[in-house]
Amino acid sequence: MNESPGSNQSHPNGSSTVSGLQQPEPLNQESQADQALPISRRQWLTVLGASGALAAGLGWLTWQGQQDHALPISAAQTLWSSEFDTPQGEPLKLSGLRGKPLLINFWATWCPPCVQEIPLLVDFYRQNAAKGWQILGLAIDQPSRVKRFMTELDMPYLVGLAGLNGTELMKILGNDNGGLPFTLALAADGSVLMKKLGQLHAPDLANLAKLSV
After folding, report:
1. Residue whose C-alpha is closest to residue 39's, from 176, 204, 190, 145
2. Beta-bridge partner residues of 37
3. pLDDT digits (tens, 9 = 90+) for 155-197
4. Most buried among 58, 144, 210, 211, by the most CB within 10 A?
5. How far is the first Cα of the chain from the last one, in angstroms, to the nearest whole number?
Protein backbone atom coordinates (compact mmCIF):
# COMPACT_ATOMS: atom_id res chain seq x y z
CA MET A 1 0.00 0.00 0.00
CA ASN A 2 1.40 3.38 -1.01
CA GLU A 3 0.61 6.08 1.47
CA SER A 4 2.10 9.52 1.81
CA PRO A 5 3.45 10.43 5.24
CA GLY A 6 0.78 11.76 7.57
CA SER A 7 0.92 14.63 10.00
CA ASN A 8 -0.94 15.72 13.11
CA GLN A 9 -2.47 19.18 13.43
CA SER A 10 -4.56 20.58 16.24
CA HIS A 11 -7.90 22.23 15.47
CA PRO A 12 -10.02 24.66 17.50
CA ASN A 13 -12.71 21.99 17.95
CA GLY A 14 -10.22 19.68 19.70
CA SER A 15 -9.90 17.24 16.82
CA SER A 16 -6.65 16.42 15.04
CA THR A 17 -5.67 15.78 11.47
CA VAL A 18 -3.85 12.60 10.46
CA SER A 19 -2.62 12.08 6.88
CA GLY A 20 -4.61 15.10 5.75
CA LEU A 21 -7.98 13.92 7.09
CA GLN A 22 -9.69 15.80 9.92
CA GLN A 23 -11.06 13.50 12.59
CA PRO A 24 -14.66 14.13 13.76
CA GLU A 25 -15.50 15.53 17.15
CA PRO A 26 -16.50 13.06 19.86
CA LEU A 27 -20.15 12.02 19.75
CA ASN A 28 -20.50 12.81 23.44
CA GLN A 29 -18.50 14.37 26.23
CA GLU A 30 -16.22 11.86 27.97
CA SER A 31 -13.31 11.98 30.37
CA GLN A 32 -9.72 12.56 29.32
CA ALA A 33 -8.97 8.91 30.04
CA ASP A 34 -11.59 7.85 27.47
CA GLN A 35 -9.63 9.12 24.49
CA ALA A 36 -8.02 7.39 21.54
CA LEU A 37 -4.58 7.90 20.08
CA PRO A 38 -4.47 8.46 16.29
CA ILE A 39 -1.66 6.81 14.34
CA SER A 40 -0.34 6.98 10.80
CA ARG A 41 2.36 5.24 8.74
CA ARG A 42 4.90 7.92 9.66
CA GLN A 43 3.99 7.58 13.33
CA TRP A 44 4.42 3.78 13.10
CA LEU A 45 7.92 4.30 11.75
CA THR A 46 8.56 6.84 14.48
CA VAL A 47 7.45 4.31 17.08
CA LEU A 48 10.25 2.03 16.05
CA GLY A 49 12.76 4.62 17.18
CA ALA A 50 11.01 6.89 19.66
CA SER A 51 7.77 5.46 20.96
CA GLY A 52 7.77 7.44 24.17
CA ALA A 53 8.01 10.80 22.42
CA LEU A 54 5.27 9.80 20.02
CA ALA A 55 2.81 8.85 22.74
CA ALA A 56 3.39 12.12 24.58
CA GLY A 57 2.94 14.30 21.51
CA LEU A 58 -0.26 13.01 19.93
CA GLY A 59 -3.79 14.23 20.55
CA TRP A 60 -6.53 11.82 21.62
CA LEU A 61 -10.09 11.41 20.37
CA THR A 62 -12.99 9.17 21.33
CA TRP A 63 -15.75 7.55 19.34
CA GLN A 64 -18.04 4.94 20.80
CA GLY A 65 -20.91 2.92 19.37
CA GLN A 66 -22.97 -0.17 20.00
CA GLN A 67 -24.16 -2.34 17.10
CA ASP A 68 -26.30 -5.43 16.74
CA HIS A 69 -25.72 -6.39 13.12
CA ALA A 70 -23.27 -8.49 11.17
CA LEU A 71 -20.06 -7.09 9.73
CA PRO A 72 -20.17 -6.22 6.03
CA ILE A 73 -19.41 -9.34 4.01
CA SER A 74 -16.09 -8.02 2.71
CA ALA A 75 -14.99 -6.97 6.22
CA ALA A 76 -15.91 -10.35 7.66
CA GLN A 77 -14.02 -12.16 4.90
CA THR A 78 -10.93 -10.03 5.51
CA LEU A 79 -11.13 -10.56 9.27
CA TRP A 80 -11.49 -14.32 9.25
CA SER A 81 -8.85 -14.79 6.56
CA SER A 82 -6.28 -12.70 8.47
CA GLU A 83 -3.23 -14.36 9.96
CA PHE A 84 -0.62 -12.92 12.31
CA ASP A 85 2.33 -14.19 14.33
CA THR A 86 2.22 -14.46 18.09
CA PRO A 87 5.05 -12.85 20.12
CA GLN A 88 6.40 -16.39 20.47
CA GLY A 89 6.67 -16.71 16.68
CA GLU A 90 3.75 -19.08 16.18
CA PRO A 91 1.13 -18.52 13.45
CA LEU A 92 -2.24 -17.24 14.61
CA LYS A 93 -5.13 -17.74 12.17
CA LEU A 94 -8.23 -15.78 13.04
CA SER A 95 -10.37 -18.39 11.32
CA GLY A 96 -9.62 -20.62 14.31
CA LEU A 97 -11.44 -18.17 16.59
CA ARG A 98 -14.65 -18.21 14.60
CA GLY A 99 -17.84 -19.63 16.12
CA LYS A 100 -17.36 -18.35 19.68
CA PRO A 101 -17.81 -14.86 21.14
CA LEU A 102 -14.68 -12.83 20.44
CA LEU A 103 -13.37 -9.51 21.69
CA ILE A 104 -10.65 -8.03 19.47
CA ASN A 105 -8.59 -5.26 21.04
CA PHE A 106 -6.13 -3.25 18.92
CA TRP A 107 -3.45 -1.78 21.15
CA ALA A 108 0.19 -0.72 21.52
CA THR A 109 2.62 -0.44 24.41
CA TRP A 110 3.25 3.23 23.55
CA CYS A 111 -0.47 4.07 23.83
CA PRO A 112 -1.33 5.04 27.46
CA PRO A 113 -5.09 4.35 27.30
CA CYS A 114 -4.34 0.97 25.70
CA VAL A 115 -2.12 -0.03 28.60
CA GLN A 116 -4.56 1.32 31.20
CA GLU A 117 -7.43 -0.85 29.94
CA ILE A 118 -5.46 -4.13 29.86
CA PRO A 119 -6.16 -5.06 33.53
CA LEU A 120 -9.90 -4.80 32.77
CA LEU A 121 -9.49 -7.09 29.77
CA VAL A 122 -7.54 -9.57 31.88
CA ASP A 123 -10.32 -9.62 34.49
CA PHE A 124 -13.01 -9.95 31.81
CA TYR A 125 -11.20 -12.90 30.25
CA ARG A 126 -10.69 -14.71 33.54
CA GLN A 127 -14.33 -14.23 34.51
CA ASN A 128 -15.85 -15.14 31.14
CA ALA A 129 -13.52 -17.59 29.40
CA ALA A 130 -15.53 -20.49 30.84
CA LYS A 131 -18.59 -19.01 29.10
CA GLY A 132 -16.84 -19.24 25.75
CA TRP A 133 -15.46 -15.71 25.51
CA GLN A 134 -12.18 -15.28 23.66
CA ILE A 135 -9.97 -12.19 23.63
CA LEU A 136 -7.45 -11.36 20.94
CA GLY A 137 -5.09 -8.44 21.49
CA LEU A 138 -3.65 -7.25 18.19
CA ALA A 139 -0.54 -5.20 18.90
CA ILE A 140 0.65 -2.39 16.64
CA ASP A 141 4.13 -2.65 18.09
CA GLN A 142 7.50 -4.38 18.21
CA PRO A 143 7.67 -8.02 19.40
CA SER A 144 10.17 -7.32 22.18
CA ARG A 145 7.99 -4.63 23.76
CA VAL A 146 4.89 -6.76 23.46
CA LYS A 147 6.58 -9.73 25.13
CA ARG A 148 7.70 -7.56 28.04
CA PHE A 149 4.22 -6.11 28.57
CA MET A 150 2.60 -9.54 28.37
CA THR A 151 4.83 -10.65 31.23
CA GLU A 152 4.53 -7.50 33.32
CA LEU A 153 0.75 -7.28 32.99
CA ASP A 154 0.14 -11.04 33.18
CA MET A 155 -1.93 -11.15 29.99
CA PRO A 156 -3.51 -14.63 29.73
CA TYR A 157 -5.34 -14.13 26.44
CA LEU A 158 -4.15 -14.46 22.84
CA VAL A 159 -1.93 -11.72 21.43
CA GLY A 160 -0.97 -11.23 17.80
CA LEU A 161 1.59 -8.94 16.19
CA ALA A 162 -0.42 -6.90 13.71
CA GLY A 163 2.00 -4.15 12.63
CA LEU A 164 0.85 -1.91 9.78
CA ASN A 165 -1.51 -4.64 8.61
CA GLY A 166 -3.36 -4.05 11.85
CA THR A 167 -4.07 -0.42 11.02
CA GLU A 168 -5.55 -1.46 7.69
CA LEU A 169 -7.67 -4.15 9.36
CA MET A 170 -8.97 -1.60 11.87
CA LYS A 171 -10.15 0.65 9.05
CA ILE A 172 -11.88 -2.25 7.31
CA LEU A 173 -13.65 -3.08 10.57
CA GLY A 174 -15.01 0.45 10.95
CA ASN A 175 -12.24 2.48 12.59
CA ASP A 176 -11.81 4.93 9.71
CA ASN A 177 -9.32 7.12 11.59
CA GLY A 178 -7.08 4.25 12.65
CA GLY A 179 -6.85 5.44 16.27
CA LEU A 180 -5.94 3.36 19.32
CA PRO A 181 -7.23 1.68 21.35
CA PHE A 182 -9.98 0.14 19.24
CA THR A 183 -12.19 -2.71 20.39
CA LEU A 184 -14.64 -4.86 18.47
CA ALA A 185 -16.76 -7.53 20.18
CA LEU A 186 -18.49 -10.22 18.11
CA ALA A 187 -21.09 -12.81 19.09
CA ALA A 188 -20.64 -16.45 18.15
CA ASP A 189 -22.65 -15.86 14.97
CA GLY A 190 -20.42 -12.95 13.94
CA SER A 191 -22.86 -10.17 14.80
CA VAL A 192 -21.37 -6.99 16.26
CA LEU A 193 -22.00 -6.60 19.99
CA MET A 194 -19.78 -3.58 20.62
CA LYS A 195 -17.48 -1.32 18.68
CA LYS A 196 -15.48 1.32 20.50
CA LEU A 197 -12.68 3.71 19.66
CA GLY A 198 -11.19 4.85 22.95
CA GLN A 199 -10.34 3.42 26.33
CA LEU A 200 -12.59 0.69 27.73
CA HIS A 201 -14.07 1.10 31.20
CA ALA A 202 -15.58 -1.40 33.60
CA PRO A 203 -19.22 -0.67 32.60
CA ASP A 204 -18.40 -1.40 28.95
CA LEU A 205 -17.25 -4.91 29.78
CA ALA A 206 -19.90 -5.48 32.44
CA ASN A 207 -22.62 -4.74 29.90
CA LEU A 208 -20.91 -6.97 27.36
CA ALA A 209 -20.82 -9.87 29.80
CA LYS A 210 -24.60 -9.63 30.25
CA LEU A 211 -25.35 -10.06 26.55
CA SER A 212 -26.52 -13.35 25.09
CA VAL A 213 -23.71 -14.54 22.85
Report:
1. 176
2. 180
3. 999 999 999 899 999 999 999 989 999 999 999 999 999 999 9
4. 58
5. 36
State the Cα–Cα distance between residues 21 and 9, nearest whole angstrom. Answer: 10
Q: Which domains does the chain have, with CATH numbers?
A: 64-210 (3.40.30.10)
pTM: 0.73
Q: What is the pLDDT of residues 15-43, one digit of tens each?
A: 222 233 233 333 333 343 455 666 554 45
- Nearest 5°: the CA angle 96, 101, 105 is 85
What is the DSSP track for 7-44?
Answer: --EE-TTS-EEETTEEPPPPSS---GGG-BB---HHHH
CA dihedral of residues 11, 172, 37, 151 (deg, nearest 10) = 180
In contact, 87 and 143? CB cutoff 8 Å:
yes
Q: Single out the residue of 85, 86, 121, 93 nearest to residue 105, CA to CA.
A: 121
